[in-house]
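Reviewer 2 asked us to include a model.

Predict the structure of this chain.
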Amino acid sequence: MVFTASKIELLILGLQVRLQTDGLKGQYKGMIDGFIQTFEREGSFALYKGVTSPLFGVALINGIVFGTYGPTLRWWQNRRQQSGQTPSRSSHYYDVFVAGAVAGFVQSFVCSPVELAKINLQLQKDKVGIMGRPAQNAGRLYTGPVDVMKKLIRQQGVRGFYRGLNSTLLRDVPAFGVYFASDEFFCNWLAGENGSVADLAAWQVMLAGGSAGCASWIINVPFDVVKSRIQGDSITQPKYRGVVDCFTKVSKEGLRALFRGTVPILIRAFLTNAATFVVYKYSLKSMNRWLQQEE
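Predicted model (structure tokens):
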């Protein structure tokens, strides 16, 4: 299930980047049209360009996110108890939001360069070769994610490696706060007043996780569009001078431009986070049972 969701996610991710960076050219009318045009012009493997970067990066990023979130939440709640504050449901959601935001901040320093490599590889236009595969080195500036990083560092130094970091932080700090707080809310809602979150069925955990993923993304699509534009911008002749300049120029294309790629984003968000949370929570359950048996 997780493997299938990952393959679908990578396919949708390719469409998302192309739609967000389309700009005023209007090459794609929507998600379906983007898929058809890419398939016809560049072959069936075009939307999987740059997958090496997120494939290897996603495990590290998820490890950082969940590894930061848990300890931060415990520290924040202990701090609240030591100060004599009485915990409430609203304060719990606030604590979860803060811990999620901290996790989003920390993971941004890994996520930003991973997505930078992915976007630059995705935006390369290949000529179609045999069996729908791209022709050998046809119109390619980069041969892979490592090559992207080497050339960016060579041309711009460390600043090039972290191009788009500010927009990544603006997107991910609030997004991960909403992400974990939303999951907590949906889990409590599904459990009911007298139920326990620990007793939720797998489908309920997936529904809560997928819904939390959509909630965290829907408020941050404009920041994601800005980030994609900045990271996919030309190195030699940049169109954007920074986050504010990019946001201003994209806004002039119309409100719709700030929400390009929303449909593939939400589809990807639900599938990915439904799988992520069910694996995460059931892994924790199994680990806790094993630790109890050892004691």
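The two ends are 33 Å apart (CA to CA). Confidence is low (pLDDT under 50) at residues 1-7, 126-137. We have added this to the supplementary material.
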